[in-house]
Specification:
The protein has 281 residues and is α/β, with parallel strands linked by helices. The protein has helices at 2-8, 12-33, 44-53, 56-76, 85-120, 130-147, 161-168, 170-186, 211-231, 252-267; strands at residues 128-129, 151-159, 193-198, 201-206, 237-245, 273-279. A six-stranded mixed beta sheet has the order 1-3-4-2-5-6, with helices on both faces.
């Protein structure tokens, strides 16, 4: 598992070079052993490695290279053939075998990635679910402990959302939830993460964002969301609690609850506002 994690950190060029290196190593051993010793199984290693850690296209290319190298080594090792067509046919069969391996591994990886996405995504909105969000916060806390990088956590509640369901129906209500998530995703960084914690409550994780930066980001974001709701003629506003993490909390829940409490303070005092605080002050 540790080796797999290391390989995933490599660049595309490093992965391709390593795959070709495996091909060369297998070819050298095959040549030294002679044509009477079968080495076909070992050529699967570079094909599988490149396919899994890069993509299907490079897997197909590695399959072709492996089949050609296999033929070249076989001929160089002095393998006698009764007919000129025989090595060509053998190469075609070997290449077909590698291509099947590539196709199967590519399909398996896509399936696993899709399953992993479903396991961490809210089905209705496409935002992360609460379980995966807590995992992301935990990772951010680990970075905070190691590097001291301040981050901010945003808790968002949709005011008057029930009235949208009552007036326009649940289909429109669901559309409103998706619109909020789509807008947040389109107007935040790739490193930021929005999650649906349940019902009409959402959370936003802002890595490497201190209190001052979060004030600018969240204020602009909520202004845009309010305009989006007005454009759709939905009576939705937003109560938002923002906590910049400057001190290590005892638990993840303590940090989330701090932002949640800020949000509820706004709910109890008229709604439609943003309250900021620094955790640890």
């Amino acid at each position: 598992m540790k080796l797999i994690n290391i390989c995933q950190t490599w660049s595309l060029t490093q992965k391709l070079i390593f795959g070709l290196f495996i091909v060369i190593i297998v070819a050298v051993f095959e040549f030294l052993a002679g044509y009477q010793v079968e080495f076909s199984l070992f050529y699967i290693l570079p094909v599988a490695f490149v396919t899994w850690f890069t993509n299907r296209t490079f897997g197909l290319l590695t399959s072709l290279i492996s089949a050609v190298v296999w033929l070249a080594v076989d001929v160089a090792a002095g393998h006698p053939y009764s007919h000129l067509f025989t090595p060509i046919w053998n190469t075609f069969i070997r290449l077909s075998f590698f291509l099947v391996i590539t196709a199967l591994l590519s399909a398996l990886r896509r399936t696993l990635e899709h399953e992993a996405l479903l396991a961490r995504t809210d089905n209705l909105t496409g935002a992360f679910n609460s379980r995966f969000f807590y995992e992301l916060v935990e990772q951010e806390l680990e970075r905070f402990k190691r590097y001291g990088q301040i981050f901010s956590l945003v808790y968002i509640d949709l005011d008057n959302f029930k009235s949208v369901n009552n007036r326009f129906g649940h289909v429109i209500g669901d559309h409103a939830l998706r619109s909020v998530v789509n807008f947040v995703q389109a107007n935040t960084r790739k490193t930021d993460a929005v999650a649906r914690l349940g019902g009409d409550e959402f959370a936003l994780l802002l890595p490497q964002t201190d209190l001052k930066e979060s004030q600018t980001v969240v204020s602009t974001l909520i202004d845009g969301l309010l305009q989006e709701m007005q454009n759709q003629q939905w009576p939705i506003t937003f109560s938002v609690g923002v906590v910049a993490c400057r001190k290590l909390p005892p638990t993840i829940e303590a940090l989330v609850n701090a932002a949640d409490e800020l949000m509820y303070t706004i709910k109890r005092n008229g709604k439609n506002n943003i309250k900021f605080a620094v955790y640890g002050d």
